[in-house]
Amino acid sequence: MTRGKQKIEAQRKNAEKNQKSKGSQFEARAVALKVICPICKAQLANQNQLGDHYSSKHPKEKPPSNSE
Question: Cellular component GO terms, alphabetically (predicted)?
Fold first, then answer.
């Protein structure tokens, strides 16, 4: 029954492979989102996204300067 042994080995290898890749992305997301909108407190990745956010969500407001 060589096929049965191969199947068991393949299942074991897949389980090991899937176990390593599992994890939460909350920490990575928190590190990536560094800019916060002072009006609505939305978290954004960079100043360019903040400018786009202001133009779409807060069109009457003026975006803050790029200096942090």
Answer: cytoplasm; nucleus
Q: Is the Cβ–Cβ distance between 43 and 32 less than 8 Å?
A: no
How much of the chain, in percent, has pLDDT values that exceed 70?
87
Structural domains in the chain (count): 1
Task: Please state, in angstroms and rounded to a whole number, the distance separating the CA atoms of residues 45 and 31.
Answer: 9
pTM: 0.55
35 beta partners: 44
Residue 44 lies in a domain: yes
Length of the chain: 68
Distance in angstroms (rounded) separating the CA atoms of residues 44 and 51: 10
Domain region containing 60? 35-67
